Amino acid sequence: NAGVMQNPRHLVRRRGQEARLRCSPMKGHSHVYWYRQLPEEGLKFMVYLQKENIIDESGMPKERFSAEFPKEGPSILRIQQVVRGDSAAYFCASSVGLAGLGEQFFGPGTRLTVL
Amino acid sequence: KNEVEQSPQNLTAQEGEFITINCSYSVGISALHWLQQHPGGGIVSLFMLSSGKKKHGRLIATINIQEKHSSLHITASHPRDSAVYICAVLDSGGGADGLTFGKGTHLIIQP
């Protein structure tokens, strides 16, 4: 049973470009969470999704950021018109059940560098 | 929103020592996670607990719900235990369903 998969592992973008980060949850998991770790800072919650639904996006910036988890395929975190401040490690985690009832398992992260 | 405090921030110890990392939080939770992160690496979930104590190998995690406090212990520490250990909680009061994280404890075990 493969763990949580994220790709790419490293992504370099120039200012103004778009970044697409993908997360495939563990088999049987229907809940996905995205977290961001800025350099020298702790992890922060961004968004919580179930299949085809955004449950909570209170931690995600209102502009330029969006997330989806379609019925088929991976969850996507999309950052439009990237800026240098978006450079960070982005982790996704998945769980089998409702938040708090299912342990969250983390992917290896995508390290985004904006030039 | 919960506030999570970890102590110490940095810890250097000799191989074989018994290690304790502490975590306190400010409001009620439904679960607490201990995570491990190696430099430049991914995040590994060590424990999820909501009461009592759990043990896995040389790692032990305890939680006291009344005192809003958890500890992570490492027995017979080894240089490969060197990593950042992160405490994270899931609020029980609703709101965001994501975890709230402490700033982490940087542990170095010297041979």
Task: Please give a structural write-up.
The complex is a heterodimer of chains A (115) and B (111). With 115 residues, chain A is mostly beta strands. Chain A is globular. Chain A is built from no helices and 11 strands. Chain A is 0% helix and 49% strand. In chain A, a hairpin with a 6-residue loop joins strand 7 (65-68) and strand 8. By secondary structure, chain B is mainly β. Helices cover 0% and strands 59% of the residues of chain B. Chain B has no helices and 11 strands. In chain B, the strands form 2 sheets. In chain B, strands 2, 4, 5, 9, 10 and 11 form a 6-stranded mixed beta sheet that branches. In chain B, strands 1-3-8-7-6 form a 5-stranded antiparallel beta sheet, with no helix packed on it. In chain B, strand 7 (59-64) and strand 8 (69-74) form a beta hairpin. The interface between A and B is medium-sized, with 26 and 24 residues.
Topology:
The complex is a heterodimer of chains A (115) and B (111).
Chain A: E1 5-7, E2 10-13, E3 19-24, E4 31-37, E5 43-50, E6 53-56, E7 65-68, E8 75-79, E9 88-95, E10 105-106, E11 110-114
Parallel strand pairs in A: 2-11
Antiparallel strand pairs in A: 1-3, 3-8, 4-5, 4-9, 5-6, 7-8, 9-10, 9-11
Chain B: E1 4-7, E2 10-14, E3 19-25, E4 29-37, E5 43-49, E6 52-56, E7 59-64, E8 69-74, E9 83-91, E10 100-101, E11 105-110
Parallel strand pairs in B: 2-11
Antiparallel strand pairs in B: 1-3, 3-8, 4-5, 4-9, 6-7, 7-8, 9-10, 9-11
